[in-house]
Write a structure and sequence with these properties.
Layout lengths: L1 H20 L3 H43 L9 H12 L4 E8 L2 E7 L13 E2 L5 E3 L6 E2 L2 E2 L1 E5 L2 E5 L14 E6 L2 E6 L14 E5 L4 E9 L3 E9 H18 L1 H30 L4 E9 L5 E11 L5 E2 L1 H10 L3 H22 L4 E6 L8 H13 L6 E6 L6 H14 L3 E6 L6 H5 L5 E4 L1 H5 L10 H12 L2 E5 L4 H9 L4 E3 L7 E2 H14 L2
Parallel strand pairs: 15-17, 17-18, 18-19, 19-20, 20-21, 21-22
Antiparallel strand pairs: 1-2, 1-8, 3-4, 4-7, 5-6, 7-8, 9-10, 9-13, 11-12, 12-13, 14-15, 14-22, 14-23, 15-16
Helix pairs in contact: 1-5, 2-4, 7-8
């Protein structure tokens, strides 16, 4: 370890001296920094616009769903007033209409009374939402509108308001949603298609322009493309280039030193982790899972622990992201699996009704390597498949096709599958229904809000009801007070884990805890 650190320090020092000697590279470096700054600025703007577009789509869908629950007689003054209030509170909404038997019966806003009737929908979603992208068929007063229909109501949205870029000067930009053009500024701007461009900032010197393309793959695939004259780019960055060239080597050397120091730290941690995995230095602690009604320990969650040379503990919040970024997360999961089976083999054989929870990262569900290793370890140890319960996060469900197939395979082999940290990402009842799951774990942030006035204090109720509707067992994480236990029991939560019961324990201490618990709760 010390030798590796010395080598890394020497490499950083050599890089610093090399940059100092190559003063001519300063101009190139500052140019590169200017491009990075441009990408950061454009990327930040694109991300903000993408988030705003996603919010508008979700808000519009929820608004339309809410209309179907109105008790007012359709097309009555009360009904129209509700539509008007919804439209006025959303600047991007141009009209809302009520439909019956393929005819627009009434509505509010700025579209013809009979409504817009494009011939063919661009998207029909499983949720029941039907959408038409802007086209000549949705043109009203020279503005091509975006239409969304859900239930008996539809809404017309001015897509130009989704593309709020501030002062435009000579910049042109376009917004694509699901690879279909949604809006451009100015209207009708001639822009290259996103699929023809690399992500980032590109200098098109042949046409004298700067082209930016940024993609956001969240709830909806969103692309933003912008072009502007290359002269504007030079004008924005000319002063910084001139000052940087004048100040020269000192600032460049300082910047490079900081970057190398950061890179050295990251590389060192990733390399140390690789060595720790190879040398079997990853330890496992076990946090008991308690049946709230009886107080009996029914198993534990296996948690990875790592101490560097000299006894320095590395937080899982640090080394697990490093493992994911450096492609070592499956090796880490396998190390935890093997240690867990080895340490818990005896108690799992003696008490076959209990199980140990093994956490799986999103990358663990990209192929069946983990599934194969789980089966191999259990077979060697002579343990049944229900000895291990597998925990996945909401993030792991994003790659739904692959995840769904692997989850089904785990359950076919006899493993229960739990969703961990539920509620911290984007999940819905219909989305979870598409996966075969057994247990829903409620995130600590929602448990902390029990009995408080926090905005999230009611979320846990909805999470519990969602789990009940899907027939899932519930486990509350981070339980710390008796009042939380009472509340969770009253609301039908079956299991809990947290410091009120026990902190994560080494194998020997956990087995002592478990046996003592079984003696006091036979």
């Amino acid at each position: 370890m010390l030798r590796r650190r010395r080598i890394m320090f020497g490499s950083a020092l050599a890089a610093l001296v090399g940059v100092a000697l190559l003063f001519g590279s300063i101009v190139w470096f500052l140019w590169n920094e200017s491009v990075n700054a441009e990408e950061a600025n454009a990327g930040g703007l694109a991300d903000a616009l993408g988030r705003r577009t996603e919010h508008i789509f979700l808000d519009t869908r929820d608004m339309l769903a809410g209309f179907d629950h109105l008790t007012a007689e359709r097309c009555s003054p009360e009904h129209l007033r509700a539509l008007q209030d919804a439209a006025v509170s959303r600047p991007y909404v141009r009209a809302i209409g009520y439909w019956h038997a393929a005819q627009r019966q009434c509505g509010v806003g700025f579209v013809p009374g009979e409504g817009l009737k494009p011939t063919r929908a661009d998207r029909i979603y499983d949720t029941g939402v039907i959408a038409w992208w802007p086209s000549p068929q949705t043109d009203v007063g020279g503005v091509q509108l975006f239409l969304m229909r859900f239930g008996d109501h539809d809404v017309a949205i001015d897509p130009s308001l989704l593309l709020d870029l501030g002062p435009m000067e000579r910049r042109q930009a376009g917004l694509w949603v699901e690879k279909l053009r949604m809006a451009s500024s100015p209207v009708g701007a001639q822009l290259p298609l996103p699929e023809t461009l690399p992500v980032g900032v590109t200098m098109d010197r042949a046409q004298g322009r700067v082209v930016s393309h940024f993609a956001r793959n969240g709830l909806l695939p969103i692309d933003i493309v912008a072009i502007e004259p290359i002269d504007d780019f030079w004008h924005r960055h000319a002063q910084s280039l001139a000052i940087g060239a004048g100040v020269g080597l000192v600032l460049v050397a300082a910047w490079i030193y900081l970057i190398l120091r950061y890179s050295r730290h990251q590389l060192s941690l990733a390399t140390e982790l690789r060595d720790a995995l190879a040398e079997g230095e990853i330890r496992v602690h076990y946090q008991p899972v308690i049946e709230l009604k009886t107080g009996r320990c029914v198993g534990a969650e296996a948690l990875a622990r790592w101490e560097r040379d000299g006894g320095e503990a590395v937080s899982p919040d640090v080394f697990i992201p490093v493992a994911e970024e450096s492609g070592q997360v499956q090796d880490l999961t396998i190390a935890v699996l093997r240690t867990t089976v080895r340490e818990m083999r005896k108690v799992l054989k003696e008490f076959p009704a209990i199980s140990i929870n093994l956490n799986l990262a999103p990358d663990d569900l990209k192929n069946d390597r983990i599934g194969t290793e789980v089966a191999r370890c259990l077979e060697i140890a002579g343990l049944p498949t229900n000895s291990l319960k597998l925990e996945i996060t909401e993030r792991a469900l994003v790659n739904s096709d692959t995840s769904r197939a692997l989850i089904r395979a785990f359950r076919d082999r006899g493993h229960q599958v739990a969703v961990d940290d539920f509620g911290t990402g984007y999940s819905s009842l219909s989305y979870l229904q598409s996966f075969e799951l057994d247990v829903l774990k409620i995130d600590k942030s929602f448990v902390d809000a029990i009995g408080t006035e926090a905005a999230t204090s009611q979320v846990i109720v909805h999470v519990i009801e969602m789990a009940k509707s899907l027939g899932l067992a519930t486990v509350a994480e981070g339980v710390e007070t008796p009042d939380q236990v009472v509340w969770l029991l009253a609301h039908g939560v079956s299991y809990g884990q947290g410091f009120i019961f026990s902190k994560p324990l080494p194998a020997g201490a956990f087995i002592e805890f478990f046996r003592a618990n079984r003696r006091s709760h036979p």
